[in-house]
Amino acid sequence: MSVPMDDRALQYGDGLFETLRVERRRAPLWSMHLQRLLNGCERLRLPGPAPDALWSAVCDEVPDDASYVVKLLLSAGSGPRGYARPEPVAVRVYAQAAPLAETPALRSAIWCELRCALQPRLAGLKHLNRLEQVLARMECQDASADEGLMLDHEGRVISATTGNLLIRCGGRWLTPRLDACGVAGVARRWLMQSFPISEATLTKAEVDTADCLVISNAVHGPRQLLRLAGRDYAADLEVTEWRRCWRQCFEADPA
Known about the structure:
Elements: H1 8-12, E1 15-23, H2 30-43, H3 51-60, E2 67-75, E3 92-99, E4 109-116, H4 131-142, E5 147-152, E6 157-160, E7 164-169, E8 172-176, H5 186-194, E9 197-200, H6 204-208, E10 212-217, E11 221-224, E12 227-228, E13 231-232, H7 237-251
Parallel strand pairs: 4-5, 8-9
Antiparallel strand pairs: 1-2, 2-3, 5-6, 7-8, 7-10, 10-11, 12-13
């Protein structure tokens, strides 16, 4: 796969992407990925490719019936120098697959120093500008931590570096609001449709005193965080049930 030097995804991060889990040539959460991608196209004023063409691009990268992670990238296509897009925009679709590797439990996390910038017009989207996450992951590596939790510039909790955050506090499951920044994850949406989870504006202090912490993404589903900033958390039966339902979603035979 080659990318032209004048591709706007390469030059400016002008585009969107989805990372999806494919089991036996099936992606049970595909409709959610597709909806988010097409919503992103509308908000970024990009032509939305035909859904069948997007799914074909995914399938072309999956050679057999094993488990894969497929990254689907939508670029604003080629253009001349400068930020202005050409008219009309001719989008490009790139796809790349890798065998799924289950990662170990999330043993530890830190609070990242880097703060998420506030930009409501991009909030929720999985756009290509991910330098905040790149820098935050460096902090995790320096601290030998599996994950990092991120705040915005007003001190509100947003997410982990590679997924959404959910906490149980006072018997209620909560997840941060994402109306000013952050990615509205597909696994987060699946969890909110499957279990009683509410959005809330969360502070660092509320997370630090929560009873249970979970990080979710579309590849690994919900995973409990076992240690944050020196505090340990015991394995939680409710999260075990979430994971059972997640596995069942991907293991079920198609109707």
